Amino acid sequence: MSRIGKKPIEIPKGVEVKVDGQTVTVKGPKGELTQSFDKDLRIELNDGVLTVERPNDIKRIKALHGLTRTLIYNMIIGVTEGYTKSLEIIGTGYRAAKKGKVLSLNLGFSHPLDIEDPEGIEVEVPSPNSIIVKGNDKQQVGAYAAYIRRFREPEPYKGKGIRYTDEHVRRKVGKTGK
């Protein structure tokens, strides 16, 4: 049995969860999230406790059991606390600025990159060398942070580029002279 899938999810105060067949809607102080899940799993809500049950032990169903429970739990955390990803920019002349809903990145190209924030995502630039991506959907926050990082990934010789705050970049020595 899936150890994660068997765990019941306690619904915190201030969060409203609706289960309509295979669609789960979660409302909380930070917004509303809706997601549909596989038709073979049973999602039940009883007295403020949500459980995910599987009908059999087919490999595909076993794989979806823990995933479904985790996705619902992430939705609940997202509407109560929200998710953040921190990025830092390292390199001479590399910097970020925020103009309304547009993130402007100077990353050594001939022009600045202007990226508009997607729906449901908030981007903060506390200093020119750091970016904070916030939102209530964990997948969307991680995907947008990875999208920003992709413009200038950290290189191994000088470490220049955009990296996650907790990321460790393996450095290489480089060439040696005679």
UniProtKB/TrEMBL annotation:
GO terms for cellular component: cytosolic large ribosomal subunit. PROSITE patterns: RIBOSOMAL_L6_1. GO terms for molecular function: rRNA binding; structural constituent of ribosome. Residues 158-169 have a biased composition (Basic and acidic residues). Residues 11-82, 90-164 form the Large ribosomal subunit protein uL6 alpha-beta domain. Keywords: Ribonucleoprotein, Ribosomal protein, RNA-binding, rRNA-binding. It holds the Pfam family Ribosomal_L6. The keyword Ligase does not apply. Part of the 50S ribosomal subunit. HAMAP family: Ribosomal_uL6_B. NCBIfam families: L6_bact. This is Large ribosomal subunit protein uL6.
